[in-house]
Amino acid sequence: MGTGGELEDVRIYEFDAEGRLMSRTEADNVDVDGQGLWHLQTVKRTVWNAGAATATGSVGEVVVSEQKLDKLDWQSSLHAGVIAAAVLPAMSMSTLELYRYTAHLSAQEQSAQAHNIQFWRKAFYPFACFVMVALALPFAYLHGRAGGISIKVFGGIMLGISFMLLNNVAGHLGLLKNWTPWVVAATPSLLYLGLSMAAFTWLVRYR
């Protein structure tokens, strides 16, 4: 991809219903709009046309033709958003971009596990923020006069770090084991929410 966001050195292959190569299109630069129209520049197009069938039913010789064009428009289902998503790291994509890109990968029967996990992690971000607040409740209930404030603060920080670490580890394990993406994204939050509520309930009852 060029500095202006355009694609460079693009090759497009077209096949017939039986998997035979019909054409190859090469372009030095390509601009893709939001409707999936590709504007190709400096184009070289090679077309393979099978010859007419003979009396015995066999296909004649394949005729190869070449064209050189300054510009060519090519309609595709891949719009600019999908193209940009394909070259961006999953971490830097928005929730909407991840949703669109995973839908495109699934439609093309390609693996979308990594992007699905990242999508659900971003979708559960508000819930994860709520869990972080819930983790602070047991420490807020402790009395400052009881002493050991520095240890309690350190324990709270380490608990928050362990929550983020588990989130990352769960994502990698889910990718390796091919677990259900939303389960991978939700499990660490549910686990720490249950831990926080259990600790807070114990403090209220016994402290």
Strand content: 15-25%
Return the structural class: alpha+beta
- Strand count: 4
Question: How far apart lie the N and C ends?
Answer: 61 Å
Can you walk through the features of this model?
The chain is an alpha+beta fold and 207 residues long. The chain folds into two domains: 7-79, SH3 type barrels, CATH 2.30.30; 88-206, no CATH class. Helix content is 50%, strand content 24%. It is built from six helices and four strands. The protein has a four-stranded antiparallel β-sheet, with no helix packed on it. Strand 2 (21-32) and strand 3 (37-50) form a beta hairpin. The longest helix is centred in the C-terminal third of the chain and has 29 residues, at 149-177. It is elongated. Mean pLDDT is 80; it is low at 52-57.
Write the layout of secondary structure elements.
Layout: E1 7-15, E2 21-32, E3 37-50, E4 62-75, H1 80-87, H2 95-107, H3 113-123, H4 125-141, H5 149-177, H6 181-206
Antiparallel strand pairs: 1-2, 2-3, 3-4
